[in-house]
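pasting for the record
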Amino acid sequence: MRRFSRIAGAALLLAGGGANADPLPPEEAGRFAAPGITYRGGASLHFLGIEFGGLSALAVLDGGHRALALSDAGHWFELALNYDTAGNLADAKLLRHGPVVDAAGKPPASKRAADTEALAALLDGGFAVAYEQQHHIMRFPPSDPPLSRPPVAFATPEGLSRAPANGGIEALAALADGRFIALAEALPAPAAFVGDRTGSWGRGWIGDGQSWASFAYALEAGFAPSDATVLPDGDILVLERARLSLVGFAIRLVRLAPGELGPGRAVTGREVARLSLPFVGDNFEGLAARRAADGRTLLYLVSDNNFSPLLRTALVMFELN
């Protein structure tokens, strides 16, 4: 477990050196080519002078002009996103950062209490955040800086307490009707939900934060959910990840219809894209989506470097075909 360093104050403002990112080189387009999606640019993030990394959740705001990312060390990072003349993601600049405060309005006292893994932007300008280690979900009211006012706890989804310390909720998304979908990384679904169906099944929940209904979510061997977002048409897109090697990963994007989810159901999503990234440290854990001005759906993925020199923090954009 990485030592957690407390940051005093609600937010730190940055200016000058170290507040830039490097655009990904053109050859990255070949690595990110896959049926179902079209690569639309990206940047490698390596801001200097701060403890940056471990990004595990992402929200894209203000029509794609800003992004908010969470680290699994309990920090938030606000980014300004820049695009080239073709609309491709070209650069990201760090605007400010700070701690995700606890229920008392203070920075978490330990890494165990600060393991933020999933983020959902709410219509009122606030956010819902899922935590591992101490499994729970918190609702943060609107604030500036973000995540700087004390949150209130959601009810704990049934069975979540039985998840492994690092196998709790990794995917959380807010539906248009006010409900939320949550998916666990490593918690099997109840056998009664699956019946005689074969394969691996993980546990998911849908609810309004006060009450939750459980369902089973079909898993492909080796893959586990790492984030989810709601598409402009209302469907849910799940990001799944599998480890290929020491610094290699594969990802799947799986589409679900909200109407398929319900108490005790066994749900199999539809794969829309798959990427294999061997020997490259792109451990994608964060996913967000938005509708472009011309109606196209744009996806954003951010990777977790695990605070390791072997991995990188990449922010990439795709068009959903």
